[in-house]
Amino acid sequence: MVFFSMNVPSSAPRSNIPDMPSVDDLLPYLRQIDENRWYSNFGPLAQTFETRFAQRMEKAHKLPDKTLSCVGLASGYQALTIGLRLLGVVPNDKVLIPSVTFPACPLAAAPLGAEAILSDVDPQTWTLTPEIARQAASKMKLAAVMSVCVYGFPLPAEEWDAFSRETGVKVIIDAAAAVEAQKYPETCLVAHSLHALKPFGIGEGGLLVARDPDLIQQARERINFGMKDHITYQTGENAKMSEYHAAVGLAQLTRWEDIKKRRQKIYETYKLFFESLQDLTSIHPLLEKTIASSLMISLKEGNALEVFNRLQQQNVAVHHTYLPPLYEHPAFAGLEVTGKEGANEIKHKALGLPFHAFLSDEEIGKIVQKLRESL
Ligand SMILES: Cc1ncc(COP(=O)(O)O)c(C=O)c1O
Ligand 1 centroid to 375 CA: how many Å? Predict the structure, then answer.
């Protein structure tokens, strides 16, 4: 099963096309870089981007001013690694991670010498739930849980706060593709990916968001070689966001409302076409609660692999994002797994259809027609 090839010919159908700012959108910010002659190391554009992003999220979630602090990073992967460091994860600690997610999640635990434990996921929400984490925490000593907003599905912030308070286990929410859709909990850290293929894409980048400004200040030191006043007191790395990436981030903030509208329109069009397929397949209900980054459907027959192959033969850019479960990836074969039932069920019923802002109604109609013929 092929998931993504770096050698995709330009004529091949694409499941996702980034919605990025044009050169004209970027120019005012690039000119500021010219004037400032400041290119990285917490420059003025990165600082402005962080402030504006936090303000935008406070407004979206009706939070008082200055509730949120955030720091820009070079990638979502690094937001996870640094996030785990901030939670105090040290060598040999166990970190519970869902087995239906992107490989970045267990890989992020590796530089810390921590042990990733692959958790089963709930077959309804396709996520690692607080209940599943509670069961794991009753059987082993966990240092942290990395719960993941797969496909941008938002997680219950209050429930994760309650889990963390009750068990004492720290939580990082990997809200990679769930910018704005994910609420910011009281205690848990939130990481975003700003990769080009995410709804809020800047090329490569990430964000760590927390209510505790001290934690974000510590993140700033960790992403700059662990340095404070040029002295390294603790381990760290170079994971800073450059001014060029912050420029794209600032341009995206001005485009964000339009980006959301375009994605919502594509989602609504798919929904209309899916009405006639109700008995055979459905769009995952949690897509309603996010700014969709991909169109995930659930096949009632559980024959996802066959349907995938038939659609591929018809030149439809189907995908199996976050599948197969991570325990089937050779690199993770040695990891402890808490259960496979939910993840295996999802493997047999989940399928991704092309989803991006540039699909016409006609193209969507054709994709759904081909799906109908393939079921
Ligand atoms: C769930 C999840 N976590 C983490 C990442 C890693 O983010 P990045 O590509 O920005 O490093 C991704 C990227 O696709 C992701 O989907």
Answer: 31
* Domain residue ranges of the chain, discontinuous segments joined by +: 23-251, 256-374
Residue 98 in contact with ligand 1 by CB distance below 6 A? no
pLDDT (tens digit, 0 to 9) for every residue of the chain, 375 residues total? Answer: 444 444 545 567 899 999 999 999 999 999 999 999 999 999 999 999 999 999 999 999 999 999 999 999 999 999 999 999 999 999 999 999 999 999 999 999 999 999 999 999 999 999 999 999 999 999 999 999 999 999 999 999 999 999 999 999 999 999 999 999 999 999 999 999 999 999 999 999 999 999 999 999 999 999 999 999 999 999 999 999 999 999 999 999 999 999 999 999 999 999 999 999 988 999 999 999 999 999 999 998 889 999 999 999 999 999 999 999 999 999 999 999 999 999 999 999 999 999 999 999 999 999 999 999 999
Q: Take atom 7 of ligand 1 and give the residue whose Cα is closest.
A: 76
Cα–ligand 1 centroid distance for 289 (angstroms): 20
163 touches ligand 1 (CB under 6 Å): no
Architecture of domain 23-251: 3-Layer(aba) Sandwich (3.40)
Task: Give me the residues paired with residue 117 across strands.
Answer: 96
Is there a contact between 203 and 220 (Cβ–Cβ < 8 Å)?
no
Give bridge partners of residue 98 from the DSSP assignment.
119
- β pairing state of 69-73 and 350-353: unpaired
Architecture per CATH, domain 256-374, reads as Alpha-Beta Complex (3.90)
Phi, psi at 94, each rounded to 5°: -100, 130
Spacing, Cα 176 to ligand 1 middle (Å) = 6
What does the alpha-carbon distance between residue 304 and residue 324 come to, in Å, rounded to a whole number? 11
